[in-house]
Amino acid sequence: MGTHRSPTSATTSGSTVRQRLSPAGRLIGLDLARGIALFAMMVTHIFALSDPAGLPTWAAVFAGRASALFAVLAGCSLVLSTRSRMAASGRLRDAVPSVLIRAGAIVIIGLCLGSVSSLLAVILVNYGVMFAIAMLFLRLRARTLFVIAVVWMILSPVLSMLIRSEFGLEPMYSSMSWFDLASPLTMLHDLVLTGYYPVLQWLSYILLGMAVAKIDIGKHLMSLFAAGLGLFLVGKGVSWLLINVAGGGPGLVRVSQLYGTDLNAALFTGSYGVTPTTSWWWLAIAGPHSSTPFDLLATAGTALMTIVVCQSLAMLLGRQTWVLAPLTAPGSMPLSVYSAHVVLLEITRRWIGANPMLGGEAMTPQTVEFGLHGLVFIGFALMWKLAIDAHGPLEAGVAAIIRSASPVPAPGLEPSEPVPGAESESESESESESTRKSASRPPDTY
Description:
The protein is mainly α. The chain has one domain (about 35-440). About 65% of the residues lie in helices and about 0% in strands. The chain has helices at about 5-20, 30-45, 65-90, 95-115, 125-135, 140-165, 185-195, 200-215, 220-245, 250-260, 265-270, 295-315, 325-330, 335-355, 365-385, 395-405, 425-440. This is Heparan-alpha-glucosaminide N-acetyltransferase catalytic domain-containing protein. Keywords: Membrane, Transmembrane, Transmembrane helix. InterPro entries: Bact_Transport_Assoc, HGSNAT_cat.
């Protein structure tokens, strides 16, 4: 005798799957943007950014932009992960333990990955430090944070150039690991000034992301897109004028030839964190990972526009956002996926190196490697969300530690303290509504 599933059971099952892939109350647009950032970074990790002649390849389009988007989204996550705690009392000190625990966990994971990775500059230690610093800005309003972020993008590279040139600090070009603890002073200036992701400049991305998360993104899509486009045009446009009109180009050619610097790489594929200090004209470029004012402005603008496009798509799809799950599922667990990618890359790169003919004439070995990473992390994220938990293993583990060590304070025990930097009435009302809703939710685990 056969068994048949009732239509009601099938409908319930389908609804459960959709709910797990697209949980109510979660900003799916941000998960989509995180997914894009993750796979764009994988492109830059796997494919060559320049050809044998030194010219940029198609993969160079993502150089600098992917990691900048990831950093801006990390700033969004900082606000979202402390929203419930801040809503309960309005006091910064209620969010401090959770932020410090999260920052410490990220630093530890980053040091572990840096100790095993020989291929990548792992960014997690820098993120942990920036989270701890950015915590001091949590109570500021969106507009104040946006202004601070833009000013930081303009001034911090100048300060970095002054300090590095004054003390003769040179880039180390090494991933932060446990071994660096043996030389704390070197580790400190590498972390803040001379590393792949100098905290001094990159903190501006975190602050910008915090500003984005402080507003109702759905109601400010056009404003955010306009801001992003403006930052991009200023970053690229002013850099072009300085190099091609104001005399920066010939000046950079001279110092590049004199000191043996690869100018083409600095302009198109990457400077590995900071520019040389041989000329102030270096601050005029907008090349990937140069951490100049114009690089920061342009990549921040690209990040804002990407977030707007992703959130717009999520709003258009409405309840059908589950169709975006191949990107949003990995994007909902970025710490887990990024960490696993760092480890897997060590394995696949040796495999690719041992099989140079892999892929045959149809695909390059790099295409095979990227396809493998894509399939592994999309498949893993989908199965994890459907069968185990809405959040990735590392995200859930860190959240469990936070809940155990620092429970969310009960709301309504004391009146909230006033928040400095009041904005327009409409934005204040929007934030107040968001705060009231978040006060009744469990702690966010973004």
